[in-house]
Amino acid sequence: MTDSSKPTRWHTHPDADAVATAAANRILQSATDAIARSGQFRIVLAGGRTPEKAYRLLADADTDWRCWEIYYGDERCLPADHEERNSVMAREAWLDHVPLPPERHHPIPAECGARQAAQSYRDTIATALPFDLVLLGIGEDGHTASLFPGQSHPPAELVHPVHQAPKPPPERVSLGERALNDSREILVLVTGAGKRKAVQAWKQGDALPVSRIHGLHGADVLIDTAAAQ
Ligand code: 6PG
User: Fold this and answer.
1) How much is the mean pLDDT over the chain?
2) CB atoms < 10 A from the CB of 59, how many?
3) What is the DSSP string of the chain?
4) Any idea where the domains of the chain sit in the sequence?
5) Residues 140-180: pLDDT tens digits?
6) CA 216 to ligand 1 centroid distance, Å
7) Mean per-residue pLDDT for 37-46?
8) Is 49 in the pocket of ligand 1 (CB under 6 A)?
9) Ligand 1 binding pocket includes 48 (Cβ within 6 Å)
10) Do 143 and 210 form a contact (C-beta atoms < 8 A)?
11) 174 CB under 6 A from ligand 1?
12) Does any ligand 1 atom lie closer than 6 A to the CB of residue 142?
């Protein structure tokens, strides 16, 4: 039963570039509102490739980076400088190009292994909740962050070690539903025909990991026409 007070709002755009522009604009507006409200902006980044275009746009943004606190929704258990790390993609596309104070960038120490990194990151985000904005992608199987269909985790656990993930690498670390849902805003970026089936399943109400993330006030989905058809 979907919670009508936490709706999923679909916003269709012509292509991936338009999704990226809309995402960057929404993120900056969320930052402006949060900084005006509390003096800081706590954002959780999505991994994978979809958000990269939006991250590149944010590298040129005019905002007070001293107020940003940057966390990650998930990370792959690879060396800290490995090109397949979500943190490496975010740094190369965006974070290494802006004056974000290093102490306000909180990568998941996934190079330490899933169990140890999850334990460490629980302590990191316990003091960060509620988030202002959580960015997410969606996999072709309906996974989000590193929450995969068919895998279960303790519901009260803020950060999970993930083993045998169907999307390589098999060892990962992921924020859990409880942490991802403790956010004022949820922004899901979806582009490309490869995501069509997952989107259709989501819209018809299938119990996918992504459909369980609605935040405190619902989720906004920025989707291109290729994924929406
Ligand atoms: C990861 C991501 C994952 C990603 C989806 C979509 O570590 O792989 O966190 O959840 O968001 O798999 O990936 P793409 O954006 O590359 O399609």
Assistant:
1) 97
2) 14
3) ---TTS-EEEEEESSHHHHHHHHHHHHHHHHHHHHHHHS-EEEEE--SSTTHHHHHHHTT--S-GGGEEEEESEEESS-TT-TT-HHHHHHHHTGGGS---GGGB----GGG-HHHHHHHHHHHHHTTPSEEEEEE---TTS-BTTB-TT----TT-SEEEE-S-SSSSS-EEEE-HHHHHSEEEEEEEE-SGGGHHHHHHHHTT---TGGG--TTT-EEEEEEHHHH-
4) 19-228
5) 999 999 999 999 999 999 999 999 999 999 999 999 999 99
6) 23
7) 98
8) yes
9) yes
10) yes
11) no
12) no
C-alpha 38 to ligand 1 mean position (Å): 30
- Does the pTM of the predicted model rise above 0.90? yes
In this predicted model, what pLDDT tens digit does every residue of 123-140 receive, in sequence order? 999 999 999 999 999 999
> What number does the ligand 1 atom closest to the CA of 136 have?
11
Ligand 1, atom 12: closest residue by C-alpha: 139
User: What atom in ligand 1 is closest to the CA of residue 167?
Assistant: 8
pLDDT band, very low/low/confident/very high, at 206 (cuts 50, 70, 90):
very high
- Does 1 score more than 80 pLDDT? no
**CATH architecture type of domain 19-228:** 3-Layer(aba) Sandwich (3.40)
Q: Which atom of ligand 1 is nearest to the CA of 189?
A: 15
The answer, yes or no, to whether any atom of ligand 1 lies below 6 A from the CB of 144, is yes
pLDDT band for position 2 (cuts 50, 70, 90): low
Atom of ligand 1 minimally distant from the CA of 192: 17
